[in-house]
Amino acid sequence: MQTHLAPEFKDTPDGRAAEAILRSCVHCGFCTATCPTYQLLGDELDGPRGRIYLMKQVLEGAEPTRATQLHLDRCLTCRNCESTCPSGVRYGELVDIGRRVVEAKVERPAGERATRWLLKEGLTSPLFGPAMKLGQLVRPLLPAALKAKVPERAGADAHRWPTRPHPRKVLLLLGCVQPTMMPNINSATARVLDAAGIQTLVADDAGCCGAIRTHLNDHEGGLADMRRNIDAWWPLVEGLTEAGRVEAIVMNASGCGVTVKEYGHALAHDPDYAAKARRISALTKDLSELLPDLVPALLPKLAARRSEPVPLAYHPPCTLQHGQQLRGGVETHLAALGFHVQTAPVDSHLCCGSAGTYSVLQPELSMQLRDRKLKALAPVVADTIVSANIGCIQHLQSASTRPVKHWVEILDAALI
């Protein structure tokens, strides 16, 4: 696609990156077939190709409007289009640039600005935990829409953390909302790794991975979150503490994983952090990437095997299958451990509608996608739905009659 960037963008890092991405697009339209918002709305401007045209026009000097902003806001950033694109267009990177440019030129209504500020500051605040605990106490009294965002309180076992030391050590990012909303995901991760002879360490000063601020167009705030995490992790990466050196930085929320794996790209122009960021990204692994190493160690420790494999319905998050391009690992390796993991017979590649803060900012589209995903999973005969990202888990659970859990929780429960 030929482009002629406006002078204000031509020699900037964002402009050069956007131009390279735009030039790789051959506007074939394959992406529209797998775009969830295009499928729901049927509007070319609510599909990747249409949004690319909108961003191209803005970068070439056209004045963006509220309509431009709305079409970009409706994008889930699920990156399904990247999996479909035959030309390798880096759409996720382009839409982040486009949103930043439009955000700087189009003023949002006061209500939208307030909501976005509350999300980026509230979800990453130390006060989120106490606020969520209060919400859980009064959960039966909450309106249905708010009640769906507040999970029930976890049991005491959710905070049981193994204490045995092991020579092999990994870092775990606890996440910003997960420790309060679903603490058992983190402790189950630590227990499963402990059973395989791997010690899980946590850097107390690490916090939000940066995804929340970045996707709410607070680019500098997102970069600040990334730098803080790198500083918190670096002593353990370099082996400068008594705990020793970690062999990997493990993510059990695929939304965080895809972000941390891109630290090297996000901070490539920061002379103080570029090299460190590349090292952090190279060390980062989704928890499912450890499964090939875990299976031989865990197999003898599993509870008595049933005569038939344990059935599980699996929703692979977009941040895992499209963002990180990791497919099939959970199904294959859990099968070796006595589980039968099945994805939806149709549309397993499509987003569930959670998409970070999307369910708050675009609730109507989000709920349509959630209900569509649950309908697609309905034919899978299993007592439990599993996924690999807290946002997907909470979003699906808000309308599911079956429990929705992280797959590591199921594996943890099966261990002796």
Strand order of the largest sheet: 2-1-3-4
Biggest sheet features: 4 strands, parallel
- Range of strand content: 5-15%
Head-to-tail CA distance between termini? 58 Å
Query: In angstroms, what is the radius of gyration?
Result: 21 Å
Taken from the alpha-carbon principal axes, the silhouette is: globular
Helix content: 40-55%
Your description of this structure?
By secondary structure, this protein is of the alpha/beta class. It is 50% helix and 7% strand. It contains 24 helices and eight strands. It has a four-stranded parallel beta sheet with strand order 2-1-3-4. A four-stranded parallel beta sheet has the order 6-5-7-8. Helix 5 (66-73) packs antiparallel against helix 7. The longest helix has 19 residues, at 219-237.
Give the key terms:
4-stranded parallel β-sheet, alpha/beta, 8 strands, single chain, 50% helix, 416 residues, globular
SSE arrangement:
Layout: H1 7-10, H2 13-24, H3 36-41, H4 48-59, H5 66-73, H6 80-84, H7 91-105, H8 110-122, H9 128-137, H10 144-147, E1 168-172, H11 178-181, H12 183-195, E2 198-201, H13 211-215, H14 219-237, E3 249-251, H15 254-260, H16 263-266, H17 274-283, E4 284-286, H18 291-298, E5 310-314, H19 318-323, H20 329-336, E6 339-343, H21 358-361, H22 363-377, E7 385-387, H23 390-397, E8 404-406, H24 407-414
Helix pairs in contact: 2-7, 4-7, 5-7, 12-24
